[in-house]
Design brief:
homodimer, mainly alpha, two-stranded antiparallel sheet, 10 helices, DNA-binding
DNA sequence: GCAAGTACACTGGTCAGACCAGTAGCCTGA
DNA sequence: TCAGGCTACTGGTCTGACCAGTGTACTTGC
């Protein structure tokens, strides 16, 4: 005989449950509006503070957004990875997750994305990738920031070609967290133009493998590129974590 | 000349920022207590409802927990993947992410975990894995639920042996979401004992590869095992997403 | 008739004050 | 010494109020 631990259920939690259920089940679609707070408090039969606490939670989860003055009421938002990003970011900062682990994880995700992209890509994907690489070449002339944006776009195109939204989102999130951790070091990098040339060469190589539909090769090259470009920022004694992926 | 879009910053948001910063930076450690709401409202110079909305947000992010009646105040929690789990779960439900994509992602994560585990495992890891497999054998005699728990434990041991907390957490989350999606189908499965025997065989094989430090083999076997056991629940026309990983 | 401008009703954000159920820890009495 | 009750305080909720800001409908001037 086993019993479950009980916890008192607060009123605002039940409101969150009801609205969340309506949103994730699709009964409330993005762009639709919730009733205003005063209306909700009569519908749920609670005080306004209770309604507001529930809305705060839903807002923190990026499910709704409310703006003062708008008589149409709080807006239901489209699903977005923003909340996932925040959770992962917090976990990475708090849970003694260092650059080594993040980079390792990124090598895993990016490698897999390349593997899948190489084998599942359509002709549209290929031309989008060609365009993205060309944009990187052009960006290298204009400055580091443009180049960086083009680089991100390239990786996103690869991720989308893998046909897996989870992979897209996770890769995006991890990339963001990695970049945040090293952006200061990167901005002090000595020879940026050499950096950009190195990245360009790596990307061209990878793209060739994707064209050839050689998933294994594309994955290995992508992981190697990450290693070559970022490993120097990882403490030497932790690089052993990364080498098994090469 | 470019300008940033501005959004009004609400009072509760700045409170969230301050407390969150203190928590994730480690200035407030798990188990420590925040001042009570009435004390916080004087410290921040705002009303109690504002303080409460901030605490609600932090509570939704699993950073703190408050219980009525406790004179020590809200408790700072240890970092946990619960918030990540919720975000990913919501995204999977709302963002038309189906079983195929989830399973594909799980094959990626589990495969990589096996790869890393096989190459980074210590002797302690190996004996823990041996114990976990023995527990699965024993569980198979006792019933499906025990077996299932032992199976989860085995995968977690593998993930931990990969030495990457992000991999541990993500794999755990995705496994949970996959299981939630098919638990009803699984509970109606015809021949559970055959299922369990098949899983056992797969795990034994994988473990052998881990012992032999053959990462590639362990990864391939792990992905194959997932495919063999779960692909039948994936619509046939989507299985092409999974085969590139075999 | 129509565009520009204004007024208003209503929104969410915040505050103050109150009450309640429930708890931790003290304090008392045996 | 210790079990029991007491109490001051907690967080959860409600009411009612005010404010700055917004969208809409109406008015005004052309």
């Amino acid at each position: 005989m086993k019993f479950e631990p009980v916890a008192p259920i607060r009123a605002y939690e039940r409101i969150v449950e009801q609205i969340e259920e309506a949103v994730v089940s699709g009964r409330l679609k993005p762009g639709e509006r919730l009733p205003g707070e005063r209306e909700l408090m009569t519908q749920f039969g609670v005080g306004r503070s209770t309604v507001r606490e529930a809305l705060r939670v839903l807002q923190a989860a990026e499910l709704i957004r409310s703006r003062p003055g708008d008589p149409r009421g709080p807006e239901v938002l489209a699903a977005s990875p923003a909340a996932l990003h925040r959770s992962m970011h917090r976990l990475a900062r708090a849970d003694h997750v260092g650059l080594a682990e993040l980079l390792q994880f990124r090598m895993v995700l990016d490698g897999s994305a390349h593997l899948l992209a190489a084998q599942l890509r359509t002709d549209d994907d290929l031309s989008a990738l060609d365009t993205a690489l060309a944009a990187m070449r052009a960006g290298a002339e204009e400055g580091f920031e443009q180049f960086s944006h083009a680089d991100v776009a390239f990786h996103e195109t690869i991720a989308r070609a893998s046909r897996n939204p989870l992979l897209v989102v996770s890769a995006e999130v991890v990339r963001g967290v990695v970049l945040e951790l090293i952006e200061d070091k990167l901005s002090h990098a000595r020879d940026r133009s050499a950096l950009m040339q190195s990245w360009l060469a790596h990307h061209a190589e990878v793209l060739e493998a994707v064209h050839a539909a050689d998933g294994e090769l594309a994955a290995r090259l992508a992981r190697r590129a990450l290693y070559d470009n970022y490993a120097e920022y990882v403490p030497e004694e932790q690089r052993a974590l990364l080498t098994p992926l090469l």
